[in-house]
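Suppose you are handed a protein chain with no further information: no name, no annotation, nothing but its sequence. What can you learn? This example shows the usual starting point.
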Amino acid sequence: MPRSDAAGLLSRPNRLTVRMRLTLTYALLFTVAGSIMLALIYAFMRYVPTYAITAVRADAAMDGATRWRATVPSEVAGAATYQLAEGLTSANGAAALVVSDQSDILNTLLVWSLIVLVILAAASAWGGWILSGRLLRPLHEINVAAQRAATGSFDHRVALAGPRDEITDLSDTFDHMLDRLDRSFRAHQRFAANASHELRTPLATTQAMLDVAATSDDLDDETFRGLIARLRETNTRSIQTVEAVLDLADLEHSELRGETVALGELASEACVAAASAARARGLDCTAEVQDLAVWGDEAMLHQLCGNLLQNAVRHNVDGGFVRVSVRRSGGPAGGAVVLRVENSGESIPADVVARLTEPFYRAGGRVARGPERSRGLGLAIAESIAEVHGASLELTARSEGGLVVTVTFPPSDPDAGTEASAQRAVTTRSPRAHTKNPARVNAP
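A reasonable first move is to predict its three-dimensional structure. Written in structure tokens, the prediction is:
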């Protein structure tokens, strides 16, 4: 723990536990409510009724007991009067309770009410202690999970059972947060390992070539120029990798300054741009797109389409295919816009598909060979672009081999404000010639 945090904890004043504060709160509220009720009853009995009580001694009964009878005058000026029933009798010759005037009634009421109030207040404190303990038990579980998470362990889950309430909602939210933190932490660990491996390879290559040059005394000009060219190529590759990582970081923290972009046109352009590489491998690259637009950044969406097409062409088999489509789901109007890129290729296990969007991860291993080797950032950048636009990117392995990438953009809001609609209209990108019906574009 940092020293400043420890000092802050030591400087905090000691307080009662939450359970004790809840217990005292329950008892205090009950006592206050009971006191108010007692005061109101006492005030009512003190000021509302009219008392005219006379205690007289009746004749001795046949059994020797003394009988007391409380009576009131038959009439009291200005008030209704009632004749009391037969008085109280004591078997030992003494009156069990003698009420001679108004103060006896009020004092007896007050004393016994206070006794009952104290007993009930103690019972409410005990019940509040038990109830608060049960209510705070889930918070203890959440605290245990939070303490474990603070040490880097995200495997503990609260997983409260029972009916849904505020506590279970908090528990579910906390468990969901732990799941996200666990995935993010593991992804960052893999990213650090993959990035280190990705950068170590060209650096090791550069070091080896420099060692060869330093230990060789008979380097001719041609060999020296070749060595310089290889060093330059390796250094350029390292710069490109670093720039790609920086671009990925910028995408994750960038704000979308959008416009209406013809997504179908961008998909067709990306298919045409990839036609040369597709033709070199004998791939059939086709696009079946509708003239649909989405709200977003044109440069980002252009990069999204380009990355998906390059990935589909690069990770394919000779003589395979690449299919691109842009359509609307959920009906002709108001549904989501879906960009779909499908390619043939080798079979990909499900656990590998789940990691293809991780930076520097490649289905064929960490390091790819050849001049066209991938840096393993294409799908990671594509996913970041999709998230910036509020879209979802889904990867599905084909049973015959290959991959299907589906990007679903949220439907436009028909109830958007006038100002937002006007802004979109001003910045609308003018699409090129396009038919309204689905068009099939064949790569040359």
